[in-house]
Structures are given as structure tokens and as C-alpha cells.
Recover the amino acids of this structure.
């Protein structure tokens, strides 16, 4: 056996249609395009044209709306604050939102931070943050911490 005698099982054995190779082939003369008209010419594509019927892309309704003025907000909770204090050795007396963005703990492009009441805070912490839920503020102040909201 030689390298040129090897046969692949992956390649299909179906022959291509050879258009325009004489009338005996069944695809001679007009090569299966019919006679005259726009579709018989080369370089013509009429995508989406449905013979004068309203095309499907115009029949279907447009959906949705993207509000360009939407305010982006990232959620942050007590568990995350505990982990941040441990991992980045932050002073738990005062944690500022700007400081979290500067140290690249959170991305500013993803929006301002909002404190939610999830988990439990290990020690009293003073926070300066954009938004916070009422319950989260309550829990934080019960522990002896203070929260300053920069936006409302």
C-alpha cells in the first residue's frame, strides 16, 4: 500500500453537480436556472424577497427597549464586605466606595454599589456607599456601625 492509495472514510463519495456540461448531463445550456429573468443572471441575490408579499422581517413586531439613561448598580452584601476586609486588609472603621474602585476590587464601569442585607457582618463597620436597602442600614446601625449614602 502506498500513500496515494489510502482512502479516507471521512470524505463523502457524492459527486458535485457539474453544470453547463452539455444537454446530456441534464444541467446543460441554462445550467438549471430556467430561461431569462433576473434570477438567471450572475451576481443576483434577492435575500428576503417574497414575491411582493410583505417579508417576514417586516411582518414580525420589533421587541424590547434599551434605556440609554438606566443607572447601573452592583450589589454588595455583608458576606462580601467580610471577605474584602480579610482579603485586602482594609480598615473596617471606614470603607469608602471610591477606595474599592481605586483598589480595583469592583469595576466603576459596572455601576455604583448598593448594600443589601445578605449574610452577617462580623464587626461594626462604617461605610460610605452610593445606595443601601433599609434593612441593611438597620442591621448595620444595630451592630454599632454607621452608613453614609452618597446618592439617594
Amino acid at each position: 500500500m502506498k500513500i496515494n492509495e489510502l482512502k479516507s472514510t471521512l470524505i463523502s463519495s457524492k459527486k458535485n453537480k457539474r453544470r453547463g456540461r452539455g444537454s446530456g448531463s441534464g444541467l446543460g445550456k441554462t445550467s438549471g436556472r430556467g430561461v431569462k429573468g433576473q434570477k438567471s443572471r450572475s451576481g443576483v441575490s434577492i435575500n428576503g424577497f417574497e414575491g411582493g408579499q410583505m417579508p417576514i422581517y417586516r411582518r414580525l413586531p420589533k421587541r424590547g427597549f434599551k434605556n440609554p439613561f438606566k443607572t447601573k448598580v452592583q450589589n454588595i452584601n455583608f458576606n462580601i464586605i467580610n471577605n474584602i476586609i480579610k482579603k485586602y486588609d482594609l480598615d473596617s472603621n471606614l470603607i469608602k466606595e471610591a477606595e474599592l474602585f481605586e483598589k480595583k476590587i469592583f469595576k466603576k464601569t459596572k455601576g455604583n454599589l448598593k448594600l443589601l442585607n445578605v449574610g452577617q457582618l462580623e464587626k461594626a463597620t462604617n461605610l460610605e456607599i452610593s445606595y443601601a436597602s433599609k434593612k441593611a442600614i438597620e442591621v448595620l446601625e444595630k451592630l454599632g456601625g454607621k452608613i453614609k449614602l452618597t446618592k439617594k
